[in-house]
Amino acid sequence: MGWLVKKIREFKEEQKAHLIKAEVRMISGCDDSQTSADVSNVKMFELPDPAGKAGGACTSAYLSVLYKDKKASGAELTFVEVLQKMRVHLTEKKYTQIPQLSSSKPIDLNEPFQLVPDTATGTKRALLIGINYTGMQPGELTGCHNDVKNVKEYLMNEHSFKEENITVMLDDNVHESPTKANIISGYKKLTKESQPGDAVFCHFSGHGSQIKDDDWFEEEDGLDETLVPVDFKENGQIRDDDIFDILVVPMKEGVTLTCFFDCCHSGTVMDLPFTYRADSDSSQMVLDKKLDFGKVFREVGDFFNKKETNAK
C-alpha cells in the first residue's frame, strides 16, 4: 500500500498542471480538526477604524499583520512571516487555532506575500461572504459581517480593488443572501469572468463543518470539510469536493486566486495539494497527507477523456 501511495503522489505531481491551471493559494483560520473563534472586540487587534466591535479571530489577525507589520517594516512580508505573525497575534490573544496555507503548487515561503502579484495586470475581483446566521440558536455569530466590511475596506484602500468588481454576500436582508445556490453561482461567475492576468480574492467568514465523505477512498479521515451556507437546513452544505470542482479547476491559467476561509475545519476545504502550518519547524510546503486521491483519479480521467475526444 505504501508503494501505491508513493506512485499516486508522483502521478499527482506530474498531472497537477492539468488539474489546476490557475495559481491558487488559500489561508485558512485553522486546520481540519480545529474550530475558529469569534472576537467580541476587534480593536484588541489594533485594526484601523474597524467596521464593528466583533469579528473573526483569524480575519482580525490577518488584517492586523498586513496593516501594522508592513507599516512598521516598510516592506512586504514573506508568506512564512504572514502565517507566523498571525499565529503570534492569535496566541497573544489566547486563541489556540493555527493558521494554515495551502496552494496548487509549492510556494517559496521566503518570497514576499503578494495579494496582487506584479504579474497580475488585469482586473482585480473579489467575492466576500459573511454569515452571522441571525436568529439561529445555537450557532448565531456576531462578527462575520464586520469581517467582510473590514476586508472590503482593506482591498479597496490597500490594493485598489474597485467596488464594482467586489461582490458582497451577507445575511442582513440588504445584500445578496449567502445561500448555497448564490455562493455556488458566485464562484462560477468568478471562473467565467476572470481572465489571464486577473487577481481574484475570495473570503468566507462563517461556520465550517465536517460531514461523512460520500466518495470511497477520497478522504483519509472519512470526512469532507464544508462551508455552511445560511440555508444549510433546507439545502445542505458546500463540500470541499464542490469547491474544488466549481472554483479551483475551472479557473483559467494566468489567474491568481487567493482565498481566505475564517471558519472551523477549514484547513483543506479547497483540497489543494501543498500545505504549510504556522507551527511548522520547516519553512517549506509539504504534500498534503490527506490528498484526495479519488478526486485526482476523477479529474485526470476527465482530462484524458477530453483529450481523446478532441483528437477524434
Automatic annotation (TrEMBL):
Domain Peptidase C14 caspase positions: 21-105, 124-280
Q: Which InterPro entries match?
A: Caspase-like_dom_sf (IPR029030), Metacaspase (IPR050452), Pept_C14_caspase (IPR011600)
Q: Which GO terms describe its molecular function?
A: cysteine-type endopeptidase activity
Quick one: a GO cellular component term?
cytoplasm
GO biological process per UniProt: proteolysis
**Family the UniProt entry places it in:** Belongs to the peptidase C14B family.
Q: Which PANTHER family match?
A: METACASPASE-1 (PTHR48104:SF30), METACASPASE-4 (PTHR48104)
Return the protein name: Peptidase C14 caspase domain-containing protein
Organism expressing this protein natively? Ditylum brightwellii
